[in-house]
Amino acid sequence: MKNERSTRDQVRELLRSAGFGLIQFDSPLQADSKLRIDVLAWAADSTGELVPWAVVELRSGQFKTPELTLPSLARSRDLLGSVDHYAVVNRQWFKADRGVRSLEPVDGPTPPPYGTGGFLADEEIATSLLLKRLWREADLERSRGVHEDFFPSAELLAETAIPGIEGGSGEFVPVRPDVLWRARRRALMQFSANSRAGSDLTSHPVIATAVAALTGSRLAGTVLDPFCGTGSFLWAAMDLALAHEAPVEFVGIDINERLADLAAMIGRTAPLITTITHGDAFREPLPQADVVLAAPPVGMHLQEPRNLIDGASTNDATVAGVDLAVRQLRPGGRAIVHVGAGFTFQHTAERFRQYLAHECRVAAVLGLPSGAVPGTGVRSVLLVIDKAEPGDTFVAQLGGDWETQLKPGGAALTAALDHLDDGAAAG
Predict the structure, then answer these.
(1) Residue 227: enclosing H or E segment and its boundaries?
(2) CATH, domain range 205-426
(3) What percent of the chain has pLDDT over 70?
């Protein structure tokens, strides 16, 4: 083990000295493959994009025939398009010819021809680099006695003078800004999904994309999320806005300062205007919006009663959250709210439900089984509410295949959108 570590250290140092800034050990040959490359080094191509450049196979001990590495080197070349291929046998370097058919002894790796610059454009790699950093910090916190409540601080995803990712060993990988923005979102979502502390702090990715899709033809103007967490609803809606070249501004607020800071950090590099702040949406002034996306707190009671738009008051954070979403809508706007299923039948919300039915268009109600609200076992619903004349409601109760049903092109999502668009056109 000690000899293996020293060999890896030597390989890393020689590659760095040659000008390779991004060096990966035990990298998967493909995203879904169990085959791994001992060492993969990235370098800039003629366009300035970081690409897989050098592949290194490591062998030690009684291994004496470097040519036995040629099949794996050739496979790496064919799948990755890598340029240089090496075998390091007991710390002796060998370089393959262009056809990867033979090897010749060399002193070390050949410096890449286009220098040490370049920006990473591979979103999968950028996401994996960020995830490694997040989990490294989580492990460090656990070593300090923090076991269950660790969630990354905004500093881990902070902007740098040059867009990129700082590694744990002092290396820095420049990343194309649009790629970095998406990778930050994905890394945070994947970390949350697999972290005991974060699983109940962010929305399920399928829910986020479905909530964004349900904006339909109303996606324009100002989009508000008063309980934005790390911003998953906002980012999914932004993807749609970018795809349709819609002029949209995004506003978010969250009572959890760490989550708000993380969302704000991601928002600073977003391609559309984004403002995210820390605060209590029930107390802070909020803008009027054309679209409101919200997942109010589940099972929480407010310390003070909140007056509702129907004249009543409530301590139920879910009812108050739906009320807030409707209040902030401009005429003709749309709210998509993810709430616990209790909102649809609990007696304490009956008067407010009646108000919505008579004063707004409750355009869709999509029932979901347990599992759609991370960190809880409650059933939930997606409500689509238009600030418009009352009309027909699309109702569906989804089962265990709810993720398939709500993905782009899924049967339930497609049917709901057909109803929403027809209703909007009729209105």
Answers:
(1) none
(2) 3.40.50.150
(3) 89
Helix (H, G, I), strand (E, B) or coil at 10: helix
On the question of pLDDT at 306 being above 70, the answer is yes
The angle at the Cα of 228, spanning 225 to 230, to the nearest 5 degrees, equals 145
DSSP string across 81-137? --SEEEEEETTEEEEE-TTSS-EEEESSPPPPTT-S--EE--HHHHHHHHHHHHHHH
Strands 289-294 and 92-96, by their bridges, are: unpaired
Q: Which of 109, 202, 106 is nearest to 152 (CA)?
A: 202
Given pLDDT bands bounded at 50, 70 and 90, which one contains residue 360? very high
For the chain, state the CA radius of gyration. Answer: 26
Rounded Cα–Cα distance for residues 198 and 98 (Å) = 48
In the numeric block, which tokens belong to residue 212?
A: 């964004």
Distance CA 118, CA 116 (A): 7
Q: Quote the pLDDT of residue 67.
A: 93
Give the predicted TM-score (pTM) of the model.
0.79
Token digits of residue 266: 């991601």
Per-residue pLDDT tens over the stretch 259-277? 898 889 889 888 999 999 9
Query: What is 131-161 written as a DSSP string?
Result: HHHHHHHHHHHHHTT--S-----GGGG---S
Domain boundaries of the chain, sorted by first residue: 2-117, 120-194, 205-426
CA 187, 188, 189, 194 dihedral sign is positive
Does the 2-117 domain belong in CATH 3.90.1570.30?
A: yes
Query: Each residue of 162-181: b (16+ CB within 10 Å) or e?
Result: ebbbebeeebebbbbbebbb
Strand partners, 277: 253
